[in-house]
Amino acid sequence: MSTEEDHHDLQWERLRNGDKQALFALYNSNYPHLLRFGLKLCGNDELVKDCITQLFLQLWSKQAQLKPVINVPAYLFTALKRQLLDQLAYQSRMHDAISRMTGKEAENELSYEEIIIRVQQDDEIKQRLHEAMKSLTPRQTELVRLKFFEGLSYEEIAAQTSQTVKTAYNTIYDAIRTLRKKLS
């Protein structure tokens, strides 16, 4: 076993025992290799970087349940591959779902974006929207503000609020559904 493998094993054991410095050491020593590996699987630079970060956040959050690992880099490569494949499959499902939206649903979505944009111009709509917004959770209100008032993308919202793109999309989708019911 090489010195580097010994070093990874030691860091892994320290991570399992709650040592945050070991997590950073594993991240720093494996990041370039994981990035190269991820880019071979998928050309999306941002997605690969996000998945690597997500992988290490998950390792930290599940440190107490981690098992001893014989080959830490191989474990990390496998975990990253699984994470990337899950994200790519999710993105594909989301793309298909959006593509299948009926014209009526797409028009409704647009009309709500227009309502939000025109809020400043129409007092009656402003009042109704204000009342409808009260029925949203604080999280939904925050994400609707970021999406429609600040014009952020789902990816930017996810990064700013430390959640996944899927969660941001679903939260905003639920908020729009609630607003639709209240405003109809």
From TrEMBL:
GO terms for biological process: DNA-templated transcription initiation. PANTHER family: RNA POLYMERASE ECF-TYPE SIGMA FACTO, RNA POLYMERASE SIGMA-70 FACTOR ECF SUBFAMILY. InterPro entries: RNA_pol_sigma-70-like, RNA_pol_sigma-70_dom, RNA_pol_sigma70_r2, RNA_pol_sigma70_r4_t2, RNA_pol_sigma_r2, RNA_pol_sigma_r3/r4-like, WH-like_DNA-bd_sf. Residues 127-179 form the RNA polymerase sigma factor 70 region 4 type domain. It holds the Pfam family Sigma70_r4_2. Belongs to the sigma-70 factor family. ECF subfamily. GO terms for molecular function: DNA binding; sigma factor activity. The keyword DNA-binding does not apply. This is Sigma-70 region 2. It comes from Chitinophaga eiseniae. Keywords: Sigma factor, Transcription, Transcription regulation. Residues 26-93 form the RNA polymerase sigma-70 region domain.
